[in-house]
Amino acid sequence: MTKTITVLPGDGIGPEVTESAVRVLRSVLEKSRIDVRFVEKKIGGAAIDAYGTPLPQETIDQCKNSDALLLGAVGGPKWNEKSMKRRPEQGLLGIRKAMGLFANLRPVETFQALVDASPIKRSFVENVDFVIVRELTGGLYFGRPSERRGPNQEQVVDTLAYSRQEIQRVVEKAFRLAMKRRKKVTSIDKANVLESSRMWREIVDLTAERYPEIAVNHQLVDSAAMQLITNPSQFDVLVTENMFGDILSDEASVITGSLGMMPSASLNADKVGLYEPAHGSAPDIAGQGKANPLATILSAALLLRYSLEMECEASQIERAVHDVLDHGYRTYDLQTAQQNEKTVKTEEMTDRVIDAIDRRAVAQ
C-alpha cells in the first residue's frame, strides 16, 4: 500500500531544508519495500503570495489524506507589514488545529561532536537525552484576546483556557513515551499561581496511578528553566502546557549548540504527525546554501518512527547524522574553530548524511 507524505516547504530556508530531508527519506525508503509518494503544497507566506491565505483549503485537504506531513518553516519580513490582515504563522497554527496535532515532541540530545558548540559547560551538557512533550492546541496561544483598540489602549486580556480532556490526552502521550524510555516524567506547571496549572497537576497525579512503574516529579516552570541549564541530564520526559513548552524547548536548544540540531514531531490521536525543525525561516540566509538541514533530516527520522513505524530506518538516519558530525563536517551555525572541522553547505551536508547511510547499509 502506498504511503503519502505531504511536503510543506514554506518560506525562507524552508524549501532548502525540506528538499534535503526528502532526499534522505528517498535514499532510505528505496532500500525498503514500502512505496511512498511525496506531494508538495504551499503554506505560510508562500501560500499568501499564491492564494491570498496562509493555509489554502487544498493544502488542508491534501494533509488530511496523508500519512505524514513534513514542514520547513514559515514567516519572514516580507509578510510583516502592519496593513496585512493575514500572517504566515496563521498557516502553522491552522494546520495544527485542522489535523488535531495536540502533542509536540521535541527531543534534546547531546551530540558528542558538538559539545563544544554549546555555550554551557561541557560537564553540564554531556550525556543529555530527554524529550519535551508540549501541549500544542490550547492555552494562551489559542485563547480569546482582547479586541485590538489601537496603540493607546489602557488594558488588554489574554485567556488561558484548558479542558480536562485537552490536558489528559497530552499527559497520557507523555506517560506512554516514558514507558519506552527511562520511565521518568517531570511535569512542569505554575501551580502556585495558575488555576489551570492546579488542574494540570491533578490530572498528572491521577494518570500516574495507572503507571506505577514511572517516577513522577512536579516542578514549577521557573525552577525548571534553571534546572534545564544547570542539570539537564536529570530529565527523561518533560510534559507541560503550550506557552511553557514553547519557551523551554527553545531554551533547551543551547544544550545542542544550535536550533539547527533540534527536530520536532507534532502528533494527533492517530499515527499522523507533522514533522518540522525547531528553527525559523532564517530569510537572511535563504538561497545561500548556509542553512543547516540536520534538524529537518532528524525530523524526517521521527516521521519514519512515529507515522510509518519504521524504527530501523529512523535509527539509520540518526546514526548517520552522528557519523557525519564525528567526521568533522559542520554547517556555518555549528562552527567551533576546532582543527578537524570542515565547513560545508546545505547540499554537501545532505550528501554526507546519505553517504553515511549507504556506508552503514553496505557494512550490514
UniProtKB/TrEMBL annotation:
<feature type="binding site">
    <location>
        <position position="250"/>
    </location>
    <ligand>
        <name>Mg(2+)</name>
    </ligand>
</feature>
<feature type="binding site">
    <location>
        <position position="106"/>
    </location>
    <ligand>
        <name>substrate</name>
    </ligand>
</feature>
<feature type="binding site">
    <location>
        <position position="222"/>
    </location>
    <ligand>
        <name>Mg(2+)</name>
    </ligand>
</feature>
<comment type="similarity">
    <text>Belongs to the isocitrate and isopropylmalate dehydrogenases family. LeuB type 1 subfamily.</text>
</comment>
<feature type="site" description="Important for catalysis">
    <location>
        <position position="141"/>
    </location>
</feature>
<feature type="domain" description="Isopropylmalate dehydrogenase-like">
    <location>
        <begin position="4"/>
        <end position="353"/>
    </location>
</feature>
<feature type="binding site">
    <location>
        <position position="134"/>
    </location>
    <ligand>
        <name>substrate</name>
    </ligand>
</feature>
<feature type="binding site">
    <location>
        <begin position="76"/>
        <end position="89"/>
    </location>
    <ligand>
        <name>NAD(+)</name>
    </ligand>
</feature>
<feature type="site" description="Important for catalysis">
    <location>
        <position position="190"/>
    </location>
</feature>
<keyword id="KW-0100">Branched-chain amino acid biosynthesis</keyword>
<feature type="binding site">
    <location>
        <position position="96"/>
    </location>
    <ligand>
        <name>substrate</name>
    </ligand>
</feature>
<comment type="subunit">
    <text>Homodimer.</text>
</comment>
<keyword id="KW-0028">Amino-acid biosynthesis</keyword>
<dbReference type="InterPro" id="IPR024084">
    <property type="entry name" value="IsoPropMal-DH-like_dom"/>
</dbReference>
<dbReference type="Pfam" id="PF00180">
    <property type="entry name" value="Iso_dh"/>
</dbReference>
<dbReference type="GO" id="GO:0003862">
    <property type="term" value="F:3-isopropylmalate dehydrogenase activity"/>
</dbReference>
<keyword id="KW-0432">Leucine biosynthesis</keyword>
<keyword id="KW-0460">Magnesium</keyword>
<keyword id="KW-0479">Metal-binding</keyword>
<feature type="binding site">
    <location>
        <begin position="280"/>
        <end position="292"/>
    </location>
    <ligand>
        <name>NAD(+)</name>
    </ligand>
</feature>
<keyword id="KW-0520">NAD</keyword>
<feature type="binding site">
    <location>
        <position position="222"/>
    </location>
    <ligand>
        <name>substrate</name>
    </ligand>
</feature>
<keyword id="KW-0560">Oxidoreductase</keyword>
<dbReference type="InterPro" id="IPR019818">
    <property type="entry name" value="IsoCit/isopropylmalate_DH_CS"/>
</dbReference>
<comment type="pathway">
    <text>Amino-acid biosynthesis; L-leucine biosynthesis; L-leucine from 3-methyl-2-oxobutanoate: step 3/4.</text>
</comment>
<feature type="binding site">
    <location>
        <position position="246"/>
    </location>
    <ligand>
        <name>Mg(2+)</name>
    </ligand>
</feature>
<keyword id="KW-0963">Cytoplasm</keyword>
<protein>
    <recommendedName>
        <fullName>3-isopropylmalate dehydrogenase</fullName>
        <ecNumber>1.1.1.85</ecNumber>
    </recommendedName>
</protein>
<dbReference type="InterPro" id="IPR004429">
    <property type="entry name" value="Isopropylmalate_DH"/>
</dbReference>
<comment type="function">
    <text>Catalyzes the oxidation of 3-carboxy-2-hydroxy-4-methylpentanoate (3-isopropylmalate) to 3-carboxy-4-methyl-2-oxopentanoate. The product decarboxylates to 4-methyl-2 oxopentanoate.</text>
</comment>
<keyword id="KW-0464">Manganese</keyword>
